[in-house]
Specification:
mainly alpha, ABC transporter involved in vitamin B12 uptake, BtuC, two-stranded antiparallel ribbon, globular, disordered N terminus
């Protein structure tokens, strides 16, 4: 009786929701990881990378193939996922980044959408969707479970959340206290002036693509484990949740991006047990990002200049 009273508040049975909240925090951590990678790349290059999910999904499939069709150590397979993300985004950024540098933001974004569709088509060719639910990528950390506050937690969930927090605040310190971070912020302010000051803009942008790719591969590996299936189409479109986290941070604030990612993950998870609401989980990122943008912009004033007579 006391347990019911302790964990049932305002008609909500927290004992029932604990596993969903744990999963939501883990998923939210992965969304935040991706969101931080998206924000930093956008700040450094002006590119909103829509291929984030597709690159991570392709890397996870490569990892799965190595684990199941070769005798290579597992560490090589996991590293290959991260390496693929880094190499793929780096090559794209080096080859096509300069060509898109002076184009409109919409054109830059469509270029990454083309990359996502190419990767999606390649994955559909090499790994037909019919067997998607038979492909499972399980990290060694998922096999070790423990109980925390009455909820069963595995180490993949813990590491995902820890990585998200460490990456967020580590990146904030990097941008503030290193020369490369200063160059990122300068390019975000004005690319042309930064170039005239002697900053090697292309090399700085290439490093942003490389770092973003490492985050992309890591997020793809973690999400494939958390979702317990290698449905590459679903993993590709998880970029929507990551974009929502980035938009909640207004493509500037890393802390707000972290909070946004965790919020999206938890909201999506707690809607799962409700049959009438679970079908609307995919709309949660859009709704939350709209609410956040409206809330953060509520004190803005629109000033109309008067024409001199």
């Amino acid at each position: 009786m006391h347990n019911v009273i302790a964990f049932t508040v305002f008609g909500v049975d927290w004992e029932f929701f604990k596993p969903y909240i744990v999963l939501g925090l883990a998923l939210g951590g992965a969304y935040a990881l991706s969101g931080v990678g998206i924000v930093v790349l956008y700040q450094a290059t002006g590119v909103l990378n829509l291929a984030f999910g597709a690159v991570g999904a392709a890397g996870a499939l490569i990892c799965y193939w190595i684990l199941n069709h070769t005798s290579w150590p597992g560490a090589v397979a996991y590293a290959s996922c991260i390496a693929f993300g880094a190499i793929c985004t780096f090559v794209y950024g080096v080859l096509l980044g300069p060509a898109f540098a002076r184009r409109d933001p919409l054109v830059k974004m469509m270029g990454t959408l083309a990359l996502a569709l190419i990767l999606l088509g390649f994955m559909a060719w090499r790994a037909p969707a019919g067997g998607a639910f038979n492909r499972v990528l399980t990290l060694p950390t998922s096999k070790h479970r423990f109980e925390l506050a009455g909820a069963v937690v595995n180490w993949t969930q813990v590491l995902t959340l820890v990585f998200a927090v460490v990456l967020t605040f580590g990146t904030a310190l990097f941008l503030r206290h290193t020369n490369l971070g200063t160059a990122y912020r300068a390019i975000a302010t004005d690319r042309e002036i930064t170039a005239t000051l002697g900053v090697p803009v292309r090399r700085v942008e290439a490093s942003a693509w490389l770092g973003s790719g490492v985050v992309c591969g890591t997020a793809g590996l973690l999400l494939a484990d958390l979702f317990t299936t290698l449905d590459y189409a679903a993993l590709t479109f998880l970029v929507i949740s990551s974009l929502a986290a980035a938009l909640i941070g207004r493509l500037r604030s890393l802390t707000a991006t972290l909070i946004g990612g965790l919020t999206v993950g938890v909201v999506q998870a707690v809607l799962t047990p409700y049959e009438s609401l679970t079908q609307y989980r995919t709309a949660a990122p859009f709704v939350l990002s709209i609410i956040a943008l409206l809330w953060m912009g509520r004190h803005r004033e629109v000033v109309f200049s008067k024409t001199a007579r």
